[in-house]
Amino acid sequence: MAGDGERRQYDQAFKREAVRLSHDPERTVAQVARDLGINEHNLWRWRKKLVEGGESAFPGTGHQSLEGEELRRLRRQLADVTEERDILKKALAVFSRRRE
Q1: Separation between Cα atoms, residue 24 and residue 36, nearest integer Å
Q2: Which is more confidently placed, 26 or 54?
Q3: Alpha-carbon gap, residue 39 to 26, rounded angstroms
Q4: Which residue has the higher pLDDT, 89 or 61?
Q5: Residue 47: pLDDT above 50?
Q6: Where are the domains of the chain?
Q7: What angle (nearest 5°) sits at the alpha carbon of residue 33, between those of residues 2 and 51?
């Protein structure tokens, strides 16, 4: 079990198999989670993500969903525009002082 604030990471195959096992009518979600050594809450969340995301669920590190990739691109663009605005504000302040 991971300790000291470490978060365990599970790959897509593990999550899909855990979800598949959790649908077994012979076992409860809690039993499957306990058998796999994972938190029951995680298993419930993975089940929900698989229903919502289908084949694109659990993209993994560096493999963003289309929405995630768009969000990352827009955040980067916002940071660039904010930096440009700040530069223009400083330039305006410099030129305004010269006129006085």
Answers
A1: 14
A2: 26
A3: 19
A4: 89
A5: yes
A6: 8-61, 64-100
A7: 110
SS3 1: coil
Query: What fold is seen in the domain 8-61?
Result: Arc Repressor Mutant, subunit A (1.10.10)
* Alpha helices per DSSP H over the chain: 12-22, 29-36, 40-53, 66-99
Cα-based distances in Å from 35 to 27, 32, 38, 39, 53: 10, 5, 8, 10, 25
Cα–Cα dist 3/17, whole Å: 24
- For CA atoms 77, 82, 87, 88, the dihedral sign is positive
- For 48-80, write each residue's pLDDT tens digit: 888 877 776 766 655 566 777 788 889 999 999
